[in-house]
Design goal:
By secondary structure, the chain is mostly helical. It has eight helices and no strands.
């Protein structure tokens, strides 16, 4: 048996992005994996695989997911144009998928846009940036 190529061992960046968007939309609506799976006639394990990007979502299943999660199919591709083939954002930042796969990242992504005062948003960003830089310096 021949060795798998890197492309076969790692999920496609598009599948990761779509999966992260499914998870984000599901969490925003407060829908469990079990409930979504039941609505789609799947197992919750299949929903987990979709959300991790381990399994690709067919066009027909994505349509059903969009209908179940009260969104458009296009919603699951929003922000994808900002990524390269390797799954890294144009600015060189890691793919958003890892961030959205954490409960904290998902909560931040949902709450941050609700902060309307630009000065407060900038200060939060400065705080997070300084904390990340401090952590990076500690690991060097």
């Amino acid at each position: 048996m021949s060795e798998s190529s890197d492309a076969e061992r790692h999920p496609n960046p598009v599948d990761l992005h779509v999966g992260a968007r499914i998870r984000m939309r599901r969490k925003i609506l407060g829908v469990s994996q079990e409930r979504l799976a039941e609505d789609l006639g799947l197992t919750f394990q299949q929903i987990q695989k979709y959300e991790r990007g381990a399994n690709r979502v067919s066009a027909s299943k994505l349509y059903e997911i969009a209908k179940s999660l009260q969104s458009s199919v296009a919603y699951f591709f929003e922000g994808l144009a900002d990524t390269t083939r390797e799954g890294v954002a144009e600015g060189g930042e890691p793919f958003v998928h890892d961030f959205l796969m954490t409960s904290e990242g998902l909560e931040l992504a949902a709450l941050f846009p609700r902060i309307t005062r630009p000065k407060v948003r900038r200060r939060i960003l400065e705080l997070v940036r300084s904390m990340a830089e401090e952590e990076a310096a500690e690991t060097d």
